[in-house]
Amino acid sequence: MKTLIPLAFVLVLATGYGLWYQRTRGEFRKKKTVNGPKLTAAIVGTELGARATMVQFSSAFCTPCRATKVLLEDMVKTMPDVHYAHIDAESHLELVRQLNILSTPTTLFLNGAGVEVGRAMGTPKRVQVHAALAAIH
Amino acid sequence: MSVSIDARGPRWAALITTFVLAIALITSSVWLIAFQAVVFAIGALRGPQFTPYAYIFKKVVKPRLKSPVTLEDVRPPQFSQAVGLAFTLVAIIGSATGAGGAFTVAVGFALAAAFLNAAFNFCLGCQMYLLILRAAK
Q1: pLDDT tens string A23-63
Q2: Residue A1's pLDDT band (cuts 50, 70, 90)
Q3: Containing domain of residue B28, as a range?
Q4: Of A14, A120, B110, B116, which one has the greatest count of Cβ atoms within 10 A?
């Protein structure tokens, strides 16, 4: 039986998803619901920044994780009040569940008190990180 | 530290895979799926740089490419090959047991993943690995 219907179905759905996927990677999403748990230096493994902390979750089977790490590490060099923390999702599954991390890389943006104000999935662009940090006072 | 490979290799392989799976879906050919399953098995067990598609990339495509070489960790594409293998095995079992619907759905998912990878640089490991871990542990 030769039919083009399943092929067309898959390609249309996948194209729709792919366009959404590409557009939303790296996009900063503000947390709309109630405040999440307060994260501390003990949890993220790094001293929190005075203004903000970027907490990146990574995993082994993730190509954009490395690029994200390189970018964020580079960016905090020039921002003394912003810190960067890197967490291996696989060895912190409890935390991953608690914070509802679904994919890698996911970067949480914490304010000075350690509360998440928003997050970005995928590798953000430099300007997107600047904009996200500018929104944290 | 794991092996690094030319990042364009897996993308090229995803393109070939997309065409093979699309033809298999149109013609309902279990033999084509069996061939693709062998390719996935080599990619998953030995590494994506050892598949026939990678061989074509190395011998024919790569010498003609002018874009700069970016290296990537071999583990993310290897994970994708393992997921592809799982889908093609389900398709083969479906076909062998007379479950044509299972064949179509499994090939459809494998095609969607390969197409997303080829067209949108979709990272399957990023989206799936953490969810699998969260479900399993």
Answers
A1: 999 999 988 776 778 899 999 999 999 999 999 999 999 99
A2: low
A3: 4-136
A4: B110
Within 10 angstroms of residue B106's Cβ, the number of other Cβ atoms is 22
Q: Where are the alpha helices (DSSP H) in A1-137?
A: 5-24, 41-44, 63-76, 93-98, 126-134
CB-CB contact of A84 with A73 (8 Å): yes
Q: Which residues contact B74 (CB under 8 A, 6 or more apart)?
A: B2, B3, B4, B5, B47, B48, B49
Q: A52-84 b/e with 16+ CB inside 10 Å = b? A: bbbbbbbbbbbbbbeebbebbeebbeebeebbb
Query: Would you tell me which residues 16-35 of chain A have a C-beta closer than 8 angstroms to some C-beta of chain B?
Result: 17-19, 21-22
Q: Which domains does chain A have, with CATH numbers?
A: 26-134 (3.40.30.10)
What is the complex's ipTM, to 2 decimals? 0.90
Task: Check whether A2 has a pLDDT greater than 80.
Answer: no
Select the residue from A3, A62, A97 to test the B interface by mutation, using most B Cβ atoms within 10 A.
A62
CB B40 within 8 A of CB B81: yes
* Rounded-to-integer distance, Cα B126 and Cα B40, Å: 19
Which residues on chain B are in Cβ contact (under 8 Å) with A92?
Answer: none
How does pLDDT run across B31-40, given as a tens digit for each residue? 999 999 999 9
Burial class, A90, CB count within 10 angstroms (exposed 0-12 / middle 13-18 / buried 19+) = middle
- Nearest-angstrom CA–CA distance, B96 and B65: 41
Count of domains forming chain B: 1
Cβ–Cβ gap B126/A104 under 8 Å: yes
